[in-house]
Amino acid sequence: MATERTPRLKRAAFPEEVGVSSAAIKRMIDEFEKRNVEVHSLMILRHGKVAYESWAYPFTPDMPHIMYSVSKSFTSIAIGFAIEEGLLALDTPVISFFPEYDDKKDENLQKLNIFHLLTMTAGKSVSLMADKTKNQWLRDFFTSPWGFNPGESWEYVSENQYILSAIIQKVTGVSMREYLASRLFKPLGIRENPYWECDGNGIEAGGWGLFITTEELANFVQCCLNGGKFKSKRVIPAKWVKFATSSLVENTGAFGSAHPDSTSGYGACFWKNGENRGYRADGMFSQFGMVFEEYDACLILTACEIDEQISRDCIWEHFDSLFVEEAEKPELKELPALNKLADLPKTKIHSRYEEILKDKKLTLKPSVPLEVMNFPLSMLPMFTTFMSTDKAGYYNNFCLDFEDDKCIMSWDEKDEHNSIICAMDGTVKYSPLHLGGVDFTASASACWINETNLFVWVRPLGAIGQRRLRFEFNEDGTANLYTSTYPDLDKVAVNLSSTFTKDIKTDLVKKLVSSAFTNVAPGFLEPKHKCKLVDR
After folding, report:
1. Residues forming a β-bridge with 456
2. Is 191 exposed, middle or buried (0-12, 13-18, 19+ CB in 10 A)?
3. E strand or H helix at 530
4. Is-cis flag, bond preceding 522, omega within 30?
5. H/E stretch holding 71
6. What are the start-end ranges of the H helices in 258-345?
7. Please, which contacts does 166-174 make with residues 24 or more away whose CB atoms are closer than 8 Å?
8. How far is CA 13 from CA 55, 134, 232, 336, in A?
9. β-strand 429-435 against 416-423: which pairing, if any?
10. pTM (2 decimals)?
11. Is the alpha carbon torsion for 42, 47, 49, 52 positive or negative?
12. 406-413 and 416-423 as β-strands: parallel, antiparallel, unpaired?
């Protein structure tokens, strides 16, 4: 998913030139390290210039990164354009676009409007486990139960923005990306037609699934900071920027959190930061585009930390010392940089199985429970594959070939076939990778830890996680495959258990389900897989 980098923002010679403390940046990066936050990129803007930028190896500036719910803020801007052009209004009934789902007896359905979808006050409670592979996303929304009457409460439901995306296509006759191409993407230097996950009919997910680069997000939030202008040219209607980034509704109790960052108000797909520290576009696993109007500054972060408040706390811990008076020389002689991700093992071990595997492939015994649940193996590197039309993770038919300091691993994943190069010298090799309908660049490495155990690490760059595979070869011509992911599934389960149990009313049942989710699910979803070595 790499693309040519087209810088659109000027660079400061050093942070202090535009009033950003390099010493405070170092303390912030140290804080990320101290709290084990895996940061992929960090960029700080002030007075319209890039004061600081860094990427953690193997991530690079030209690689688009998954944005998760930052996508919602782009959907909001599309709605702003449509309103400005008279195609719809905030009080336009949603059902007017979808007469096939109209139920005249459902008073809530008649009340539901564009404003409710934008502000998460719609009231529809769409199940997180709705099977997106069935390509009935619209039906799932309109047939889902009401959690509350429209406008009477607040609940974060990503499908609200999918409905907005479908509405954009209804009123414009083109996809949301096509609609935004000349209005937003081109003026901001965002490459043409960025990848955005869609349903089976080509309607963008709206609430998730957009992939853009760090600098493309920087251009977006800088435009918002400038009231909708970029490079002194009007891009987004000023009225919409002010409206969308205001506190339009209360979100007290969001995700069960009492932290001001989660309870200080919600706009039209933008969050208000606590302590009057501006607003942000916010995506799962700590994808942030933060705007600090008081300081004429922005901060952009891409990362892999499921507990987003930990990431925000690292920023706030050193925020007060970040912005300083402009100076003619930097505080530090050498600018801090993000550390490369964890060192990869380098061993000189070779195994006799390298020769045996030349003419063999490993076939997996299907996991019946997982297939019944339509739940893919090792799905976390994509994570939102459970909200996708094409789930990755059903892999089989592994072939392993060894040449000098590299291992070439090939495998099938449903109807997709991949072959990547894994470095065996402590570095990584890059290869094209196609998973769940998405094109990635993979960084991969491998090593034998002993005669019978081969470890393989695969990171689809642009996604947030990493696949970890351990092949254990047995004397009887069989093998075991152990799969895991980073971030660890047990950590993700703990953080998501409250989301999956939010609709359970009985405390005892909720406790039992939460316990099962956090204690049983990881082992169930990442079991040992038995393999046979068969002729290719």
Report:
1. 446, 469
2. middle
3. strand 528-535
4. no
5. helix 70-84
6. 260-263, 308-317
7. 166/97, 166/98, 166/138, 166/203, 166/206, 167/79, 167/88, 167/94, 167/97, 167/114, 168/75, 168/78, 168/79, 168/82, 169/203, 170/97, 171/82, 171/87, 171/88, 171/97, 172/82, 172/87
8. 18, 52, 22, 14
9. unpaired
10. 0.92
11. negative
12. antiparallel
Single-letter residue type at 102? D
Nearest to 367 by CA among 492, 149, 525: 525
Query: How big is the chain by its Cα radius of gyration, in Å?
Result: 24
pLDDT at residue 519 tops 70: no
What mean pLDDT do residues 236-242 have? Answer: 98
- The structure tokens 């990129």 sit at 41
Q: How does pLDDT run across 454-500, given as a tens digit for each residue?
A: 999 999 998 888 889 999 999 999 999 998 888 877 666 666 655 55
**pLDDT, tens digit, 9 for 90 and up, residues 33-62:** 999 999 999 999 999 999 999 999 999 999
In this prediction, what percent of the chain has a pLDDT beyond 90? 74
Tell me how crowded residue 328 is: count the other CB atoms within 10 A of its CB: 8
Task: Look up tokens 């934008």; give the residue.
Answer: 118
pLDDT tens per residue, range 138-193: 999 999 999 999 999 999 999 999 999 999 999 999 999 999 999 999 999 999 89
- C-alpha distances in angstroms, 215 versus 144, 245, 270, 280? 38, 20, 19, 16
Which residue's structure tokens are 């009007």? Answer: 234
**Residue 317 is which amino acid?**
E
